Amino acid sequence: MKTPYIRLNEKVVVIINGKGGAGKDTVCDITANFFKSETVSAITPIKKIAREFGWNGEKDKKSRKFLSDLKRAFINYNGLPNKYLEEEYYKFMESDIDILFVHIRENDQIDDFKRRVKSKCITLLIRTKVNNQSEIQYGNYSDDNVEDYNYDYYYLNNQPLENLSSDFLHFIMGVFKKEGVLCCENA
């Protein structure tokens, strides 16, 4: 039997970032086990376009640079990534979901999206020291500059997978309590 969701007293947007392999998707999945949450990414419309023209989903350095450059081109041309995120944000605001995780890599795009959001919005950087992931340079603007932003919160993913769920749940509940959005009966 599924445990009832922990509810928040207002909707929260969490802009999440981190280098490849830091565990961003994993912590979003952990959160979804306890809270009504959803995850979207600024790269989604770019990946769709890239697939139409031959990209097969690879995550190697060449592909990461291609996606980063293509995303930057669309940011400069018509703002496609943040237009997509804004549409997803409005769907979220009309839903019964409490938390929207938004994957955005570029600092200027984080700031642009934050200006568009009318609900509580926090930024979170996920770091890891596993396999020296924090030291890897991918050779593209999007991946290599994730540390160059002043995030509201930082989480160090240094837990074995079997301990990560309870550790991150404790962390995120502390964040929501500090932000004043965790309902009293949940605390």
Secondary structure topology:
Layout: E1 12-17, H1 24-32, E2 37-41, H2 44-52, H3 61-78, H4 80-94, E3 99-103, H5 107-116, E4 120-127, H6 141-144, E5 153-156, H7 161-178
Parallel strand pairs: 1-3, 1-4, 2-3, 4-5
Question: Could you walk me through the main structural features you see in this protein, from its secondary elements to its overall organization?
Answer:
With 187 residues, the chain is an alpha/beta fold. It has one domain: Rossmann fold, CATH 3.40.50.300. 44% of the residues lie in helices and 15% in strands. The chain has seven helices and five strands; from the N terminus they run βαβαααβαβαβα. The chain has a five-stranded parallel sheet, with helices on both faces. Strand 4, helix 6 and strand 5 form a beta-alpha-beta unit. The longest helix is centred in the middle third of the chain and has 18 residues. It starts with 11 loop residues before the first strand and ends in a 9-residue tail after the last helix. The mean pLDDT is 90.
